[in-house]
Design goal:
single chain; 162 residues; alpha/beta; Nucleotidyltransferase, domain 5; 6 strands; 46% helix
Length: 162
């Protein structure tokens, strides 16, 4: 029996309900930028810039909880690009906080830049919004946990390429 890709995407879309806060995070080395939308893609709240450390992650969680309370939402899904190794700490921290974390393909993010405002312009805030839209539309994959030795090897390879 053949499994159609469209069926998988439909299943991913169906996971997002009207009770979800969908958050996109543009990952960077020192500061991440987050934007949030509801299940229909309507922007919720202002953008947030936060540091790539525990203090920044707590600020991010506080922002999420405020948006959920303000908009009567119960659950959150956070999408991000798996760029380098900078996303791993945030991903693990959010998983420990019982928040669903997913990744989006960086090439698709680049190709979808025009969908929001019909321009090819680039900014961290726009990228975060595009990521949130992609998650809402089912273009994401779940994060699989990997052994620590594999993650160390990934960081080593990333540093070697630089």
């Amino acid at each position: 029996m053949k499994f159609k890709m469209q069926d998988k995407q439909n299943q991913l879309i169906e996971r997002i309900s009207d009770r979800h806060l969908v958050v996109g995070v543009d990952i960077a080395q020192q500061f991440h930028v987050a934007r949030a939308v509801n299940y229909r893609g309507i922007v919720v709240g202002d953008p947030l810039t936060f540091e790539n450390n525990e203090e920044g992650f707590n600020k991010f969680l506080e922002w999420i909880n405020k948006l959920k309370a303000k908009n009567s939402l119960d659950t959150t899904i956070v999408g991000m690009e798996p760029t380098g190794h900078y996303w791993i700490n945030l991903s693990k921290w959010l998983s420990n906080e019982k928040i669903d974390v997913v990744t989006v393909n960086p090439h698709l993010v680049k190709r979808n830049k025009e969908n929001r405002d019909n321009t090819q312009s680039k900014s961290d805030k726009k990228d975060a919004l595009i990521i949130a839209d992609m998650v809402k539309n089912g273009y994401y994959a779940f994060v699989r946990s990997t052994p620590e030795s594999f993650e160390k090897l990934r960081v080593l390879m990333s540093n070697r390429d630089v």
